Amino acid sequence: MPASDDRPERAGVRGGEGQRARAKERRVGPWLFRALVYGFLLVMAIYVLFPFAWMLSTALKTESEALAIPPTWIPRTPTLDSVIGIWVRKNFALYFFNSTVVSLATALLSVFFGSLAGYGFSRFRFPGRQFLMGFFLATQMLPGVLLVGPYFKMLNAVGLYDTRTGLVIAFLTICLPFATWTMKGFIDGVPVEMDEAALVDGCNRLSVFFRVILPVLGPAMVASILFAFLLAWGDLLWALCLTTSEGMITVTLGIARTVGEFRIIWPMLMAGSLLGGLPAILLYLFLQRFLVAGLTAGALKD
């Protein structure tokens, strides 16, 4: 009789232990998963940031230390000679000015005309509308190297070869279709009733665009501006083929010309690369929220 009374008690003890074990497994599972995720993210962060760290380290070295074997991870005697040298001896200030003018003009013009085109494609129905939208998309699939030759001949024929204006026109042909698609997708999400209300109040179509539509296009405009600015800023092929004089050299072309036929000054090359990439890094850091919102505009429909 006592033995039979102990069985339920032992069963209850075993059941409690089983519940605690299962609860422990449930706690260990999410913890292990989080540890694996954070470990993977740490490895990827090191993989992405290591080139920038190595560029910074090399830019602060002397030329002899940069060529030393085995390499040094931290400069023995840090110096800013390479940074100062590429800014002064290579006329980097002029290169920055050229890249800034071309990139800003490309970004602003592509967003302005892309907004107007996107509004027209979104709000009006006209013959050839679908064909034109498909054509704009198809232009993005053409490699830029195929267009350099025709652009060289056309710009040379109209006297715009080796000018900032010629570079802006060339970059616009790449950035404008992207800006048009981005703006159209965002404007599609703006209720047509807003246009109709403004028209009833006496606005014409241009007034509706500038007073009603344009103020709500912030994220899409930022995405288009960033795309156009960074494309023009980081381009090398078109700047190399469509310019020839020292006064028209851009940042990327100036960096490429630091590589000589028989000698490469690695600290100066790394310093120029860091300075050239700084605007893009800062733009992404401060405007990434608007960039994501603009690129996803029109992706989800009700």
Concise account of the structure shown:
By secondary structure, the protein is mostly helical. Helices cover 75% and strands 0% of the residues.
Task: Please give the structural blueprint.
Elements: H1 2-59, H2 63-66, H3 81-88, H4 92-123, H5 129-139, H6 145-157, H7 164-187, H8 192-200, H9 205-213, H10 218-234, H11 237-242, H12 251-256, H13 266-295
The CATH class of the largest domain turns out to be Mainly Alpha
Helix content: over 70%
Strand percentage lies at: under 5%
Number of DSSP-assigned strands: 0
Output the radius of gyration. Answer: 29 Å
The general outline is globular
Termini separation: 71 Å
> Which residues form runs of ≥5 with pLDDT under 50?
298-302
Mean pLDDT: 81
Structural class: mainly alpha
Main beta sheet: strand number and arrangement?
none
> Judging by the overall fold, what is the CATH architecture of the largest domain?
Orthogonal Bundle
CATH superfamily descriptor of the largest domain = MetI-like
Separate helix tally: 13
CATH domain fold name of the largest domain: MetI-like fold
